Amino acid sequence: MGRPGYRQGPQPPRQQRGGCGAGLIIAIIAIVGYIGSSQKNSVTGETQRVNLSPQQEVALGLQAAPEMAAQYGGTVQSGPDAERVKEVGYILVHNTMAKDAPYEFDFHLLADTKTVNAFALPGGQIFITRALYSQLQSEGQLAGVLAHEVGHVIERHGAEHMAKQQLTQGLTTAVATASDNPNSAVLAQAIGSMLNMKYGREDELESDEWGVQLAAEAGYDPRAMIGVMQILEKATGGSRQPEFMSTHPNPGNRIEHIKTNIEQHFPNGVPPGLRP
Ligand SMILES: [Zn+2]
Fold this sequence. Notes:
Helix content is 52%, strand content 7%. The chain is mostly helical. α7 runs antiparallel to α8 (184-195) and α10 runs antiparallel to α12 (251-265).
């Protein structure tokens, strides 16, 4: 029985089922299809305990991005601020060694005006809330925040975190035993874990160092990062602890580390002409 007006005849090409089709399936097949333990990081040369390939990180990050954005009021799709975030991100990636990383970087402004935060998903999806963005005083500060997040991606902190939690192993088992409806609950768990991920102190210091290096390489004054930390410290004085602080610990000590990074990077002082 066709619907009224539905012309019988050759079937049209089969539509993809459901809204969460290809990307999800690809992500899961990718995860199931690969079980490894240590890999050499193609950018840093460091050997790491991860069990996702860079391509899997990209797939999973893209899968999680809409849900992540939804928790912060969604992405700001247009307008000068959203464009500026993308533009500064573009400058950071295309003028530094980040361009050689096997990731698909993209930079998003989130509509949330209350939560002071910035974060990165594995594979290169990077976010900053309007609450943090609106407190920044210069493009160099924005570059510092985004470069720090690029650091998390390059260092594969998310993938390391997931390997540590044996989350990918759980995913593999669950997917294998629920072949009929392999995705939603399990992937939701993986995404949930990504959304609530808290990096360790070492990860933060490592990313701060990337923040200094990439921002400077892209033509921004790395000292702007110190201003960012001061903004975050000040925000802590308010009634509500900014979320950036719980996911990015100890800004006080981080300022000292950032200063040391800058001295190491520029033993003769920061050159003139870098954008503040
Ligand atoms: Zn961080």
